[in-house]
Design goal:
201 residues; alpha+beta; Alpha-Beta Plaits; 3-stranded antiparallel β-sheet; 4 helices
């Protein structure tokens, strides 16, 4: 009986400690620069059932990529780096420059960086891939959507009724995604982001 009571008390004690640890892990310390620049962009969107905000002046550059187009001095205006970080194979920066204020427009296909976004739930920073994931309905196919919205089909999984698209230079990826969702031709359209990268063991 004493042994049973000791085991029960140990389990209760262990579970209460575990709950404390889980609670600590759930509290996310938000970097004020990231939160401020996300708020300043004024652009929010849903992806993977999470809400994201575009980070104004934020960039993700793949390690080893040429950054010639991202010099510290663009157009005669000095960029001030406000924050630096990393996610997977990407180096992340947030800079403050009037000449370099990012818009929501698509980056040109020759661009050597990606835009970044702030996850309001996790406090994490995600890489915006530049693609829109679209689940379409039975009445319309991926080619019809490409022609209707003037976007570029990247890959179509017809058996899943899901396709990946990119927008053209000068088009607003967030606005196009909203148009797709409101047009009645698709089940769902989302801007693709990657927040968590697999870590090799």
């Amino acid at each position: 009986m004493k042994l049973l009571l000791a085991v029960a008390l140990t389990l209760v004690s262990a579970s209460s400690c575990a709950n404390v640890e889980i609670t600590k892990d759930l509290s996310v310390e938000v970097n004020p620069v990231i939160a401020q620049k996300a708020q300043e962009s004024g652009i929010s969107f849903m992806s993977n059932a999470d809400q994201y905000q575009l980070i104004l002046g934020g960039r993700a550059v793949k390690e080893g990529a040429s950054v010639s187009g991202l010099s510290a001095n663009q157009g005669g205006v000095q960029n001030e780096v406000l924050w630096e970080g990393a996610n997977g194979a990407f180096n992340l920066t947030i800079s403050n420059s009037n000449a370099d204020q990012q818009s929501a427009q698509a980056l040109s296909s020759g661009s050597n960086y990606n835009q970044i976004a702030y996850n309001t739930r996790t406090g994490g920073v995600a890489i915006i891939t530049g693609q829109i994931i679209v689940s379409y309905t039975d009445g319309f196919d991926s080619v019809f959507l490409e022609a209707s919205y003037g976007i570029q089909l990247v890959q179509d999984f017809a058996h899943l009724k899901t396709a990946f698209y990119t927008v053209n230079a000068g088009q607003d990826i967030f606005l196009i995604t909203d148009y797709l969702n409101q047009g009645g031709l698709v089940t769902k359209a989302e801007v693709e982001v990657i927040e968590n990268f697999a870590v090799p063991l």
